[in-house]
Structure formats: structure tokens, C-alpha cells
Design brief:
The complex is a heterodimer of chains A (324) and B (290).
Chain A lengths: L5 H19 L1 H4 L6 H28 L7 H17 L5 H23 L4 H21 L1 H4 L5 E2 L5 E2 L2 E2 L3 H24 L1 H11 L1 H6 L4 H27 L1 E2 L6 H14 L6 H15 L7 H15 L3 H14 L1
Antiparallel strand pairs in A: 1-4, 2-3
Chain B lengths: L2 H32 L6 H19 L2 H22 L8 H23 L15 E4 L2 E4 H23 L1 H18 L4 H27 L5 H16 L4 H21 L4 H15 L13
Antiparallel strand pairs in B: 1-2
Helix pairs in contact in B: 1-5, 1-7, 1-8, 1-9, 2-3, 2-4, 2-7, 2-8, 3-7, 5-6, 8-9, 8-10, 9-10
Classes of the chains: A mainly alpha (324), B mainly alpha (290).
Chain lengths: 324, 290
């Protein structure tokens, strides 16, 4: 950006740190409000969907790999954290997150090995179909996952004696992990790896000609995105102390995809803005209207038709126009 | 498995395959012509089943539903293509994304209109009995599904090979821009293609309603089935839809009997295997994977 004067270079980190602190402490400073508890719950779910959408944006936005089955890795992470906690009788947060990352990354490796051979529409079809396979397994392996009844009684985690059992403490955890994922996404954008992914999106043949093993590059992005989605899933399992087959279902994959597109693919914060909009429509609007899902579909259609760059893309474009 | 149950399950598998063919033929037709994977295909299928439910409840006429529901859904397709898809012509991925939105809207409106419970319609009069096959009763309606699927395959093949419309479709699949340059009204051809594909999904929904059920979520289930069928068989060709459904119908049915633990995942394993061996699908001409 042209306005990177010393003043701005100093101001940006300060603003970021203040915003992060405001976010993490939300349950505390909002506690006088009547609906603080409700708002905390919704915001927590927005951050979790935000993590999922940020991870998906690595594929959709950066690498140009439109995955419509990202819930598979989210759900795998949720089940992994829940089952590891139960089977090992442990509340250790690192163990739960470790299990989630391991299982979802492995799943992404297996599915990705087939799916990344396809591109564009075909990649979208295959990721959707294979995610449904994961859903089928979660549904049928009822003795491990609880099947259609879901997996209840997920234990809330602990870390170094810190107990995340209360809703406020859990919110702090979700918010901190969210910020770490956001930081990672931001660092990736300017890294050699992140630029290689953008190269994939812009011109895969040229990347191959430059000597990149593009299949491996795609697979690594798929696994990384799967692992981050798995972290989101683990947080979801801790939050509602329950895992259901919905967490691996198509609806969740679509939620994440719609978040990325409405917010703006490849704009860093776009997927988060999208997640906020999507959950506002799905969770707040039904109190007022019966057809919230229809609204979501229509909003998505309008964005695909008229504003493919998403909310953040639109805002940046109009900001650039004003400055010019 | 006794020989008797094997025969019964084989018939079940073939009838399910016949249903999948009707469904997948529409998806494949739209893809072949327009390079768009219509992700609202499952929603059209679901809408067909629910419209059939209302028609049967009001009039008791299954056969009326079989004609009327596909026509209504074809008309819907005739509106959606020019209204939405045409604006993004050439941007195939965005067109596919658009159909996700369409599918969300249709599925939600179905839930609002018909409720979110499991529904059913009776077998139509004349096909509501069972006949004796290998010592057991077998519902005639399932045999009708097989016959209907086979007849439709023959009709579509004849239309495809022997008629002017078929020639236009084959030309459009080969090279739509060239066809437009030759003076064919490509807008009209695309709109009609999309409408016919949608109507086929609706038709499959009506045919499925008495045996395979009417329930929320059927749109996703059958969208996935049709995607697996066209990937396995090969995209964009009629023979591919036949091959894919002939394989997936029986595999899914036998899987549910033989390996109930893995049944739902089995067809995806088959899909992965086929893709690894033949990246075009069994009888396709488009490389889906490298």
C-alpha cells in the first residue's frame, strides 16, 4: 500500500493488538449487557466458522482450489478431539488439539491424494463426494462416533493448570486460537510458500515450468488447510461439548464456502467477515423470519452474480476509488 | 447369501441403477452441453418428489404427477438458465457456484411449503401388487422402474443419434461457440438443455417417490449419487451415464447387504478406484483427473 509512512507502520500493529485484546476480553467488558451470554456464544461460533473459512480460503482464495467438502476435516478434528479425550481419559488441550490436527491432516492427505489430480469444477465435485464419504463413515461407525445420536459429553480441556471449563474461559481460548490462525494466514500471504500457492491459481503450467512440483504443492496446501480446519472442529467440540454428523455434513461445507465467497476470497479478513454474515443470517435472523436459509441462498447468488470479489473486495475497490 | 436373496438384491440393485440413470442423464446432458455441473440437480429431484406428493394427495393420480411434475420443473429450468446462468456464460466455475445458491433456496422453500417430515406416496394403481420371483414376493413397481429406465435410455439414444435436436446436442457438446457461429440460436439451445436436464431430475424424483422415499436431505443424498455416477461412468456422454448407473446401483445395493458397516462409503471407494485407473471415467471423453 502506498501510504506506508512511518506513522502508519507504527499505528497498524498497535491497532491490531488493541483489536485483539478487545476481542479476547469480549465476555468481560460485555458482561453488563443483558444479552452478553448469548452474544458471547454467537461470537464464539462466528470465530470458529471464521477459522474454518480462513483455512478454506488457503485453498479457494490462494491456490484456486474450490473445495466443497471442507467440513470433512472440521468434523474429523471435532471427533478426534472428543474421542481422544474420552478414550485416553485426558483433559489435556494439547492432546486434544494434537489428535485433531493429526487425524484431519491424515484424512486430507488420503483424500487429497486423489482429489488434487483434478482441477476446477472436477476438484469441487470430488471434494464434495469424498466429504460425503467421511459423513457416511461418521454416520455408520456408531460405536465410535455415536452415529446419528452424536457424541455427547465432550470434556472441556485444560492447559498447564488453566481450566477452560466455563463459557468465558472457553471463549478466551477460541479467540486466542482464532487470532493465531489469522496471524498464520497473514504471514502465509507474504511467504514464499503463500506466493507459490497464488502462482498455482494464476498459472499452474508456468509454475510447473519454473520447476515447482505443483501436485505436491497442492497436496501440501490441502493437508495444511485440513489440519487448520481440524483445529476449528476441536474448538467446536469443546464449545458445545457435543459432536454431531452435521459437523461433517454438506451444510457445514457450504457454510464455509459461502463465508469465503461473500466475505471475499484471498482478502485475508474476507472469510471472517463472511463467517459473521453467514452466522448472522443463520442464527439471528430465524428469530424474525422463517426463510433465513432462502435469504442466505439469495445473498450468495447476488454475490456470485454481481460481486464475486466479496464484501472486503468491494470495500477495498471503493476505498481505492475514493483515494484516486 | 442364498441364491434367492441374491436374485432379489440383484433386481433391487438394477432398479436403483435405473433410477440413478434417469437422474444422472440430466446432470450429464447439462454438463455435456454447457460445461456446468448443476449442483441444484438434487434440489430439482427433491422438488419433483414433493410436487408428485401434492398431486397424488389432491387427485390420486400418479400418472398425472409423472407428466406434470417434470414439466413444471422443466419450466423452472427455463426461467433459471436465462435469468441466472446466462449472465455468467463462459465462467463455468461461477455458474456451478450459482447452482449452490439455487439449491439452498429450493431446499429451504420446499421445507417451508411441505414441512420437514418424512413423507411417502403409495404405489400407483396397477403397480401396487407383488409377483412371485424365485419363491418370494417382489414388488412390481420396482420392475416398472427398471423398464422405465431402460425405455428412457433407448428413447434418449434415438433422440441423440437420429433427430435434429440430437444432432444439435452432439454439435453443441463438441463445440458450442462454433455452433453459435453457424447461426444456431445458442441461447435457446442452452435454455432448453438446462430445462430438459432439470425435468429429468424431476422425473427421477417422481419415479423414486413411491420406493425410495420423500424426506428432507434427499436433495443432497441424490446429488451425491448422481455425481458419483457421472464421475464413474464418464462425464457428458449418455453411455457414460448408463455405465455409471449400471455399476453404482448394484454396488450400493449389494454393499448394504454384504458390508452394512461400510456400505455408505463403498461407492466412494469405487469412484476413487475408477478415477485412479481411468481418469476419464469408464466411458467418458473428458479427463476428470490427471
Amino acid at each position: 500500500m502506498s501510504g506506508a509512512t512511518p506513522m502508519r507502520r507504527f499505528a497498524l500493529p498497535v491497532v491490531a493488538v488493541v483489536a485483539a485484546a478487545v476481542l479476547v476480553t469480549f465476555p468481560i467488558w460485555s458482561s453488563p449487557w443483558e444479552s452478553s451470554r448469548y452474544a458471547t456464544g454467537i461470537l464464539r461460533d462466528m470465530l470458529i466458522l471464521g477459522i474454518l473459512a480462513l483455512s478454506l480460503d488457503l485453498l479457494v482464495g490462494s491456490a484456486g482450489m474450490p473445495s466443497l467438502g471442507h467440513a470433512a476435516y472440521f468434523g474429523a478434528g471435532a471427533y478426534a478431539a472428543a474421542i481422544a479425550g474420552q478414550r485416553l481419559g485426558s483433559d489435556d488441550l494439547l492432546l486434544g488439539l494434537g489428535a485433531a490436527i493429526l487425524v484431519s491432516a491424515f484424512l486430507a492427505l488420503v483424500i487429497g491424494a486423489v482429489a488434487v489430480r483434478a482441477a476446477g469444477i472436477f476438484f469441487l465435485m470430488l471434494t464434495l463426494a469424498f466429504a460425503q464419504m467421511v459423513f457416511a463413515i461418521a454416520f455408520q461407525a456408531a460405536d465410535i462416533t455415536g452415529g446419528s445420536n452424536g457424541f455427547s459429553g465432550v470434556r472441556r480441556p485444560m492447559l498447564f493448570g488453566l481450566d477452560f471449563n466455563g463459557p468465558d474461559a472457553l471463549f478466551h481460548l477460541v479467540a486466542v486460537v482464532f487470532l493465531l490462525v489469522l496471524l498464520l494466514a497473514w504471514r502465509l500471504r507474504s511467504s514464499a510458500y503463500g506466493r507459490a500457492l497464488i502462482g498455482l491459481r494464476e498459472n499452474e503450467r508456468r509454475m510447473r515450468a519454473l520447476g515447482y512440483d505443483t501436485t505436491r504443492l497442492k497436496l501440501s496446501a490441502f493437508v495444511l488447510a485440513g489440519a487448520i480446519a481440524g483445529v476449528g472442529g476441536a474448538l467446536q467440540a469443546y464449545s458445545i461439548r457435543f459432536v454431531s454428523t452435521n459437523d461433517v455434513g454438506v451444510a457445514r461445507s457450504v457454510e464455509a464456502f459461502v463465508s469465503v465467497l461473500i466475505g471475499g476470497a484471498s482478502t485475508l479478513v474476507g472469510p471472517v467477515v463472511g463467517a459473521i454474515v453467514v452466522l448472522f443470517i443463520e442464527r439471528v435472523m430465524p428469530s424474525y423470519i422463517a426463510f433465513a436459509e432462502t435469504v442466505l441462498g439469495l445473498v450468495f447468488i447476488v454475490f456470485v452474480l454481481a460481486a464475486r470479489q466479496g464484501i472486503v473486495g468491494l470495500v477495498r475497490a471503493s476505498y481505492a476509488r475514493v483515494r484516486a | 447369501m442364498t441364491p434367492e436373496t441374491a436374485v432379489v438384491q440383484a433386481l433391487n440393485g438394477i432398479s436403483f441403477g435405473a433410477l440413478l440413470f434417469i437422474l444422472a442423464a440430466g446432470l450429464s446432458l447439462i454438463f455435456g452441453m454447457m460445461d456446468v455441473v448443476n449442483l441444484a440437480h438434487g434440489a430439482f429431484y427433491m422438488l419433483g418428489a414433493y410436487i408428485a406428493l401434492t398431486i397424488v394427495q389432491r387427485t390420486g393420480q400418479f400418472w398425472l404427477a409423472l407428466v406434470l411434475a417434470p414439466l413444471l420443473i422443466g419450466a423452472l429450468g427455463l426461467v433459471i438458465e436465462p435469468l441466472l446462468l446466462r449472465r455468467l456464460r463462459g465462467r463455468h466455475l461461477d455458474q456451478v457456484l450459482l447452482t449452490i445458491g439455487v439449491s439452498l433456496v429450493i431446499a429451504d422453500l420446499i421445507g417451508l411449503t411441505w414441512g420437514r417430515e418424512i413423507r411417502s406416496i403409495p404405489f400407483p394403481a396397477g403397480l401396487d401388487h407383488a409377483i412371485t420371483i424365485v419363491g418370494g414376493d417382489y414388488p412390481v413397481y420396482r420392475l416398472f422402474v427398471i423398464a422405465f429406465g431402460a425405455a428412457l435410455a433407448v428413447v434418449l439414444a434415438v433422440v441423440h443419434r437420429r433427430t435434429r435436436v440430437g444432432a444439435l446436442i452432439r454439435a453443441g457438446v463438441d463445440d458450442a461457440p462454433m455452433l453459435a457461429a453457424l447461426g444456431v440460436d445458442i441461447d435457446r439451445l442452452f435454455a432448453i438443455t438446462f430445462a430438459v436436464g432439470a425435468a429429468l431430475a424431476g422425473l427421477a424424483g417422481v419415479i423414486a417417490a413411491p420406493v425410495f422415499g420423500i424426506y428432507p436431505g434427499m436433495d443432497v443424498d441424490y446429488l451425491i449419487y448422481s455425481l458419483v455416477v457421472v464421475v464413474v461412468g464418464g462425464l457428458g456422454t449418455l453411455s457414460g451415464a448408463v455405465a455409471g448407473s449400471a455399476l453404482i446401483g448394484p454396488v450400493d445395493t449389494f454393499g448394504k447387504v454384504l458390508f452394512p458397516q461400510f456400505a455408505l462409503a463403498l461407492i466412494f471407494a469405487v469412484m476413487a478406484l475408477v478415477l485412479l485407473m481411468r481418469p476419464t471415467g469408464l466411458l467418458g471423453r473428458i479427463r476428470i483427473a490427471r
